[in-house]
Amino acid sequence: MVSETPTMSGRTVLITGGTGGIGMATAIGLAALGARVAITGRDLGRAEASAADIRGATGNPDVEAFGADLSSQVAVRRLAAEVLEAYPRLDVLINNVGGFWNTRQVTTDGLERTFALNYLAPFLLTNLLLDRLKQSAPARVVTVSSGAHPAGRIDFDDLQGERSYSGATAYSQSKLASVLFTYELARRLQGSAVTAHALHPGVVRTAFGAEDPGSVQRFLVPFVRPFLKSPAQGAATSIHLASSPDLEQVTGRYFANCKPKRSSKRSYDEAVGALLWQVSADLVGLAATG
Fold it and tell me: Across the chain, where does the E strand assignment appear?
């Protein structure tokens, strides 16, 4: 028996970083399934133009844009407030936004940018929207991690890379943190009908790392680019996790190519996951309950 194509009609989805690459392809895929889709972008004008493109590509009029530089906690809080005001229900949150910086950069909050954008922004945004997700249950939180996460470790003594910094180390740490966060979130949400999954989208042809490229981005990527996944192929797992009826009762998993797989050994360390949650709550000014 062939499983029917899922419909997202009547469901509202928020996708961070939806102005290009995997995020925009995810938005197109879910809008095509009938979802009401909201995307974010650092520049509101560009986000609105992308929303118009998504509406045009899918024929779905229910695509809206929000402007927010998610490396700033003030902007994350403002975005959450705007989303809560705009949408009486929220069925799916896709934490897609991310970046890579070869040299250490500091945000307006005084935090290392890779950790702040790739990990703390989804941590804070998810927590701020959690009550609305619970009210809308069954609901889903989907967080884009990376196949780079097994190289990561959480250095609680130098989370911000102040003592030593490498773009690759900061990136892999942030993506391991995303998986640890997902598993801890799934534990905390048991019984709520809100599920949480992390995923590796594959290595995709995007402008990833273009602002501050390392030697790999500068020299290797141009040669391998023809062999990389398209954004639409990279978005397939996010779309699957947001829409598949088969996953309604499944939570706390890591996916690649639309299939569950084992993440790194470190990612299953519940003590590290719990400690990371407490430290993160402190860094973003949330009460570390539970």
Answer: 12-15, 36-41, 63-67, 92-95, 139-144, 194-200, 253-256, 259-261
Catalytic-labelled residue, pool 119, 171, 183, 254: 171
- Cβ atoms of 106 and 162 within 8 Å: the answer is no
Residue 175 identity: K
Query: Count of CB atoms within 10 A of residue 42's CB?
Result: 16
Give the largest CA-CA distance in the chain: 57
DSSP annotation of 212 reads S
User: Is residue 271 in some structural domain?
Assistant: yes
Is 171 assigned a catalytic role? yes
Query: Could you list the residue range(s) of the whole structural domain that residue 252 is in?
Result: 12-283
pLDDT at 1 over 50: no
Q: Look at the block and give the residue holding tokens 């619970």.
A: 134
- What gap in Å lies between CA 123 and CA 181, rounded to an integer? 7
The CATH code of the domain that includes 185 is: 3.40.50.720
CB neighbour class for 155 (10 Å; exposed up to 12, middle 13-18, buried from 19): middle
Angle in degrees, CA 66, 70, 76, rounded to 5: 75
Q: 86 lies in a domain?
A: yes
Write out pLDDT tens, residues 178-201: 999 999 999 999 999 999 999 999
This prediction has a pTM of 0.91
DSSP state of 121: H
Contacts by residues 279-286 (CB-CB < 8 Å, ≥ 24 positions apart): 279/156, 279/159, 280/119, 280/120, 280/123, 280/177, 280/181, 281/127, 283/111, 283/120, 284/73, 284/120, 284/123, 284/124, 284/127, 285/73, 286/124, 286/127
Three-state SS letters, 74-86: HHHHHHHHHHHHH
